[in-house]
Design brief:
The complex is a heterodimer of chains A (201) and B (670). Chain A contains 8 helices and 2 strands. Chain A is mainly α and 201 residues long. Chain A has a two-stranded antiparallel sheet. In chain A, α3 (82-97) runs antiparallel to α4, α5 (129-142) packs antiparallel against α6 (147-160) and α7 runs antiparallel to α8 (181-197). The termini of chain A are far apart. Among the domains of chain B are: 6-99; 111-183, Orthogonal Bundle (Helix Hairpins), CATH 1.10.287.110; 203-233; 415-598, Immunoglobulin-like; 603-669. The chains are: A mainly alpha (201), B alpha+beta (670). Chains A and B meet through α7 of A and α18 and β8 of B. Chain A: InterPro entries: TPR-like_helical_dom_sf (IPR011990). Chain B: Pfam families: DnaJ (PF00226). Chain B: Keywords: Membrane, Transmembrane, Transmembrane helix. Chain B: Residues 618-670 are annotated as: Disordered.
Chain lengths: 201, 670
């Protein structure tokens, strides 16, 4: 089976042949994008073999930049400029996610998580529930064992009107820390809302 | 007569019987199964889902057409035609047998028939008959002058036969021969009979027969067996076509957790199923998806497409169930839950994705006759419960549809689950030990959306509490813990959903599907189970009756195939019950499996506990002294307990002595 691929030696990128419809090859396009990112990171590394993904080979500069961005975003949060904070967290997230793919993945994920948590909270403060929900959902997938992530997701679901889903999210959060008072409180809230919606109250 | 000689069935004596047998052997079972099918269909008609008579869905005529087509198809099936032909053939053969006179000859010697007398005739009668016949057929007495040689021979052989018959009945030696070998001449040559007339084998037709035989053995038989085997192989156990199953498998292998899976996404996956080709060869996946989406939007198409749409719609839920089965093997919660949602959307003909308002009001919109355009969407009435119990405006003003009373009645018949108790249970154990077979036992009340709150457990009737809430552990329930579930009546929907064409399907898939989700990773822990047997009688109760002891408790058990973990600890699960037909009847129950190990080593502790019955036995003895005969059995019981107690006490004594001596010895050593 041959695929409609074209390689451009100047930009060192693979792309779909021009006369093919992009819609028919959705999955292929995703894979092409991933391949191009890997190649770009490899070329930028400028060595024959990319260094081992150890703690020492972790680009500190990038970490510093992310940290600075995160700090300024946190400062915006403190001064209640949530819209700015959300934007800054977004930038920090972009930096963390764009880290060369040959570097330590575990450390990358933890950086991404920190930025994502910030953006999610900023969006929640902005009452931008849908964006916050998307972030929270990702957080729950990346770090399911942190009860706060389920709290975030549950609150977003509640605000979006999916009370039953909110309830099961909060209950799931409580599994990881049964004595989490905020979770328990929100769970009570949701239960009250469910009863109200069902006309029980 | 040489050994190799074959007797052909010249007189058609045997082959009709042979043919009759070979026709009847497959025909009788086929007829039986056909009759039973039709009988069961007849009885099903009696408990047919009640259609909503006062509401005409937009696709009513198409639905009628679909149903009548299905009915005629089932009556005039190929099987029916074959069975009818078979019985015609049987009638023909029977007629042939009736008409055929049995000619008496060497092969079927019957002395009574030859002598034209009854089998119970006395010797005198036999003699008289013989005399009469021999006079008539004696070669000397018959006038042979005008006869052909053939006729003369016939007369001769008739006389011989008459003689033989007479001897067979009177002469002892001949009689013995007759009884032993069936003819009076004693053992004859071994003859091979063929239940075919001679012309078929030695006449001109014999090459044709050979060709027919070769065709049967070499071509027809292999091709029939081959096509049957292919048919068996091309469908999985769940009734999915293998290509469809492979397609679903492919989707799940390439599952992308970052992608948002919507109802339309899963419908798109379903639309590539090979099964749709059996409806119409020209159906492309795009066309199927288009038809399904137009069904969700409740749009009328032109008549041919409308027919096609209903057939596609009737097929889809089965595919969804098959897809769920495969997805659950991948432990994929997201797709499974989305598929259930799609199932409901297909049955209720509701598109809840394109329009946020439709999503919010989905529970209301599933009621017959309620349309989004007429709904007063300023009112925050999203659930059936709110509509029935605590509506902010008059339901008429909110729904704006005909027959509000009927709509509300249907709404009140949607079963909801009110969980009372849900726990992990190991049969015959009060706790959950490691490595044991466990099931989830869910006790719940079926509740109408019109019912407010739930009855206190103390308010339930005594019988319900004793038998339904607390299960008695008899030998039978220990052997089959599912018995209490199986004893419940099967779920029957009160009214058929108005837009779905196939009520047959809804007779079986009308309950909840239960998923067991592991909280830690959010994946499915087990294959889903179906809640299909539930007592729905609670729905008919009034609010007072519901709260005052009339309610019955239902049970659902979810058996886990995997044993409990090896180590002690708490394991969190979520039991998600999703209704297959109605929106708004879903329940999520968090569950903790607490695996404890209570080792048998703690026998010492047990000993102290066993001492209690001793007091009991004392009490028993006292009771006996008081002369209470009722206690007698109990007394026997406790006395036997006593013995075992004593034994165990003795053991204790022994150990005591042992330790004592040890101590003494140690002291001595000191």
């Amino acid at each position: 089976m041959s695929l409609p691929l074209v390689y451009d030696s100047a930009s060192k990128k693979v792309s779909l042949a021009e006369n093919t419809s992009a819609a028919a090859y959705g999955d292929l396009q995703l894979e092409i994008a991933q391949l191009n990112t890997l190649i770009k990171d490899y070329v930028n590394a400028n060595v024959d073999v990319p260094p081992l993904p150890t703690r020492e080979n972790y680009t500190k500069n990038l970490s510093m930049m992310i940290k600075k961005m995160h700090e300024s975003a946190a400062a915006s949060m403190r001064t209640k400029k949530y819209a700015d904070a959300a934007k800054q967290f977004g930038v920090a997230l972009g930096l963390a996610a764009a880290r060369p793919k040959f570097e330590n993945f575990q450390m990358t994920v933890s950086e991404v998580l920190i930025c994502l948590v910030g953006r999610c909270d900023a969006n929640m403060m902005l009452e931008n529930w849908l964006d916050a929900y998307v972030d929270a959902e990702l957080l729950c997938q990346l770090a399911a064992n942190i009860p706060e992530n389920h709290l975030r997701k549950g609150v977003c679901q509640m605000k979006l009107g999916n009370l039953l889903a909110a309830k099961s999210d909060l209950e799931r959060g409580l599994c990881f820390n049964p004595s989490h008072s905020k979770l328990a409180e929100e769970l009570k809230n949701v239960q009250r809302l469910i009863d109200e919606e069902n006309g029980e109250l | 007569m040489s050994q190799s000689r074959y007797d052909y069935d010249e007189n058609s004596e045997t082959w009709p019987y042979f043919a009759l047998t070979s026709v009847l052997v497959p025909l009788v079972p086929a007829t039986w199964s056909l009759v039973r099918e039709n009988l069961s269909r007849g009885s099903q008609d009696a408990d047919e889902l009640r259609p909503v008579s006062w509401f005409r869905p937009y696709n009513e005529s198409a639905q009628k057409h679909y149903k009548s087509k299905k009915r005629t198809k089932s009556i005039f099936s190929r099987k029916f035609v074959l069975v009818a032909l078979g019985w015609l053939l049987v009638a023909g053969i029977l007629y042939q047998i009736m008409v055929q006179e049995v000619v008496v000859g060497e092969t079927n010697f019957d002395p009574w028939k030859i002598l034209q007398i009854d089998e119970s005739a006395s010797e005198k009668v036999i003699k008289a008959a013989y005399r009469k016949l021999s006079l008539k057929f004696h070669p000397d007495k018959v006038d042979t002058s005008k006869m052909t040689p053939k006729e003369i021979e016939a007369v001769d052989s008739a006389y011989v036969l008459i003689n033989k018959a007479y001897k067979a009945l009177t002469d002892d030696a001949v009689r013995e021969n007759f009884l032993k070998y069936g003819n009076p001449d004693g053992p004859g040559d071994v003859k091979h009979g063929i239940a075919l007339p001679k012309f078929l084998i030695e006449g001109k037709i014999s090459p044709l027969l050979v060709i027919a035989y070769v065709l049967l053995i070499a071509i027809i038989l292999p091709s029939v067996v081959g096509s049957w085997w292919n048919g068996v192989r091309s469908y999985t156990k769940q009734g999915l076509h293998v290509d469809t199953a492979a397609h679903f498998l492919d989707i799940l292998i390439n599952y992308n957790p970052a992608k948002l899976y919507q109802i339309e996404t899963v419908l798109e996956y379903l639309s590539s199923a090979t099964e749709y080709q059996s409806i119409d060869k020209s159906l492309t996946p795009e066309k199927v998806l288009e038809l399904l989406l137009s069904h969700l939007d409740r749009k009328t198409l032109e008549s041919k497409d409308e027919q096609l749409k209903l057939e596609v719609v009737a097929m889809t839920p089965k595919l969804i169930i098959g897809f769920i089965d495969i997805a659950s093997n991948f432990r994929n919660t997201d797709i499974c839950l989305k598929l259930v949602e799609a199932h409901r959307c297909i049955i209720q003909a509701l598109n809840i994705e394109n329009n946020a308002t439709a999503y919010k009001y989905r529970q209301i919109l599933q009621l017959p006759g309620v349309e989004l355009e007429n709904l007063n969407t300023k009112q925050p009435i999203y659930t059936l419960g709110k509509l029935l119990k605590n509506s902010s405006v008059e339901p008429e003003k909110f729904l704006n549809c005909a027959n509000t009373d009927e709509v509300l009645k249907i709404a009140s018949q949607v079963p909801l689950i009110e969980p009372l108790e849900c726990k992990f249970k190991v049969t015959g154990e009060p706790y959950v030990p490691p490595n044991s077979t466990v099931h989830i036992s869910l006790k719940f009340l079926v509740k109408s959306p019109a019912h407010k709150s739930k009855p206190e457990i103390s308010k339930l009737s005594e019988e319900v509490r004793e038998t339904q809430l607390k299960e008695q552990e008899t030998l039978e329930t220990l052997r089959n813990p599912m018995k209490i579930v199986e004893d419940q009546p099967a779920i029957k929907l009160s009214t058929a959903p108005v837009y779905f064409p196939d009520p047959e399907y809804l007779k079986e898939n009308n309950g909840w599907i239960a998923f067991l989700i592991i909280q830690r990773d959010g994946k499915l822990g087990e294959s889903p189970q179906y809640v299909s047997k539930v007592d729905l009688s609670n729905l008919q109760l009034t609010q007072e009756e519901f709260l005052e002891s009339k309610a019955v408790v239902s049970t659902f058990k979810f058996p886990l195939t995997a044993p409990t973990p090896n180590e002690e600890g708490k394991f969190q699960f979520r039991l998600a019950l999703r209704h297959l037909v109605y929106f708004g009847s879903d329940v999520d129950i968090p569950l903790v499996m607490e695996v404890e190990n209570k080792p048998i080593e703690t026998a010492n502790k047990d000993l102290y506990e066993i001492e209690d019955p001793e007091e009991d036995s004392l009490a028993g003895a006292l009771a006996q002294m008081r002369g209470e005969s009722v206690r007698k059995i109990e007394d026997d019981y406790s006395s036997s307990d006593d013995e075992s107690d004593e034994e165990e006490e003795e053991e204790v004594d022994w150990t005591d002595i042992d330790t004592d001596t040890d101590v003494e010895e140690e002291e001595k050593k000191k």
